[in-house]
Each structure stands twice: as structure tokens, then as C-alpha cells.
Design brief:
The chain has one domain: Alpha-Beta Barrel (TIM Barrel), CATH 3.20.20. The protein is 42% helix and 17% strand. It contains 9 helices and 9 strands. Strands 1, 2, 3, 4, 5, 6, 7, 8 and 9 form a 9-stranded parallel beta sheet that branches. It binds pyridoxal-5'-phosphate. Pyridoxal-5'-phosphate (PLP) binds at residues 48, 50, 71, 105-106, 230-232, 246-250.
Length: 264
């Protein structure tokens, strides 16, 4: 089918087109997983919904997609409420059970941590010890331990968020001592202008850092998540060891007003 069919006038996918795009992405994830000696279900697809309409989110949830990522806490909070309402109504009217797991993937200001702790299944973007300490404090108050990933500044770009590669182990060691923050692995992003071979070497480097931390015994047995790969490079990332991919436009299409600024 022509992939432009069912694109709204703004370029976003709905209905059968959205289903096909989701299935195509799932298929490509499965192929890359198998190519790297794993099963399809060993790679988690997080659909990045920052540019999604509410209609697209409802449809994706109806198609069985459970994991969604947002990079701004205000939108995550709003969407979580809207989708809770949708799931509750669907349960009541149609008896269909559904669940959504939210992933906070964008840079997080310390004064927004409380909401992120309340709503997120996994915070991918811990980029400083001070942020981890704030999470510890909020999670302690709520008595709700939170799983986090350490964001690694893998390309050492000054403009990028993240912990520098040599400092990762120390940060994981420190977070390990916190009662309510559980370090689960690493997250990274390749620079927008990187070519495939650069991406491959950066993703491989991130995987090596994960393995080094594990070998050193930091993070415990559950330090095994590697969140890397977006629409343009998720197959490469999976081949390099990613077990979480964060994908937006390849599933959703590209609405004209697609870019939301990073951060809040
Ligand atoms: C937007 C975003 C993505 C998804 O980007 P696409 O290219 O649309 O797949 C992944 N990770 C982060 C941190 C993002 O902000």
C-alpha cells in the first residue's frame, strides 16, 4: 500500500496507514534483533509521542502499543491524564483492559522531578548526580522506587546533555547507594549529522560502557537496559546491542509542526 495513503493533510498517519507503519517498524525491529542474535521480544519499542495527536495515541493503544515516550513533562502529564480517561472509558464500554507505560526521555529540570517520578515507568535521561538526588528525594516521599537510565554524552558534544563516558561508572556507583533510585542502564543519542559508521561506533562504545559497568559490579544484576536508536538509526542501534528503541516519526509520520524543542 502507498504509504502516503491515510496521511492527514498535515502529514501524520492515522487508521490503516498508522497500523501499517507500526507493523513495518515492528518488523524491522524484529529483523535487526534476529540479525544480532536475539528475539524480537527482547527489544522494547517506545513510541515517542511528542508529535502524536491524541487520536493517534488512542489508535496505537488500541493496536496493543503500551510504551510511550515524551520529552516534556507538561505534555507527559497531560497525555497521561487523557489516556487514563480513554482507557477507563474503553474498559467500561467495551471491557477491554489496557495499560500505558510512560517513559520520560527528555532533559528534566529538578523542579519537575516530582511529576516524572509519579508518572514514569522509566526515566531515560538522568544526566547529573544532582538530578538523581532529586529523584531519590521525590521517590522517597512517595515510597515509589524509580527505574532510571544514565544518559551518556557519547559523542562528547558540548551542546548535548549527558554524563561523559569516563564519569559514568562513578555516577552509577553513587546512584547505587540511593534507596529509591534504581540504575537500570544507559541511554544515548548519536549526533544528527553523524553517518552510519560513526553511529555504529558510538552505539558500540555505549554498549561497551554498559558492559564495563556491569563487569565492575556496579548497578547490580538489573543493570542491563540500553536505550538507543531513533527513526533514522534504530536498526544500527539494535545491531550494536540496544534493547530499547525510541521511535517517533517512522511510526507517526511527520506532521508539519513536528519539532518540539528539547527540554521544557
Ligand atoms: C524525538 C525523540 C526521539 C524520536 O525521534 P524520531 O526521529 O522521531 O524517531 C527519540 N529520542 C528522543 C530523546 C527524542 O527527543
Amino acid at each position: 500500500m502507498d504509504s502516503t495513503a491515510h496521511l492527514s493533510s498535515d502529514g501524520s498517519a492515522t487508521g490503516e496507514c498508522l497500523r501499517q507503519r507500526l507493523e513495518e517498524v515492528r518488523g524491522r525491529i524484529a529483523t535487526a534483533a534476529i540479525k544480532s542474535g536475539r528475539r524480537a521480544d527482547q527489544v522494547l519499542l517506545v513510541v515517542v509521542s511528542k508529535t502524536a495527536s491524541l487520536e493517534q495515541m488512542r489508535e496505537l493503544s488500541g493496536m496493543g502499543q503500551t510504551d510511550f515516550g515524551e520529552n516534556r513533562i507538561q505534555q507527559l502529564t497531560q497525555r497521561a491524564a487523557q489516556m487514563d480517561e480513554f482507557l477507563a472509558r474503553r474498559r467500561q464500554m467495551q471491557g477491554i483492559e489496557g495499560e500505558i507505560r510512560w517513559h520520560m526521555i527528555g532533559s528534566l529540570q529538578r523542579n519537575k522531578v516530582s511529576k516524572a517520578v509519579e508518572l514514569s515507568r522509566l526515566i531515560h535521561s538522568v544526566d547529573s548526580l544532582r538530578l538523581a538526588e532529586e529523584i531519590e528525594s521525590c521517590a522517597g516521599k512517595r515510597e515509589k522506587p524509580v527505574d532510571v537510565l544514565i544518559e551518556v554524552n557519547i559523542s562528547s558534544e558540548e551542546s548535548k546533555h549527558g554524563i561523559s563516558a569516563p564519569a559514568v561508572r562513578h555516577v552509577v556507583d553513587q546512584i547505587d547507594t540511593m534507596a529509591n533510585v534504581r540504575p537500570r542502564g544507559l541511554m544515548c543519542m548519536a549526533p544528527i549529522d553523524a553517518d552510519d559508521s560513526t553511529r555504529r561506533s558510538l552505539f558500540t562504545r555505549c554498549r561497551e560502557i554498559l558492559e564495563d559497568v556491569r563487569k565492575a559490579g556496579a548497578g547490580g544484576a538489573r543493570f542491563d537496559l540500553l536505550s538507543m536508536g531513533m527513526s533514522g538509526d534504530f536498526e544500527t542501534a539494535i545491531e550494536c546491542g540496544a534493547n530499547i528503541v525510541r521511535i517517533g516519526s517512522a511510526v507517526l509520520g511527520s506532521p508539519a509542526v513536528s519539532e518540539t524543542p528539547e527540554g521544557q
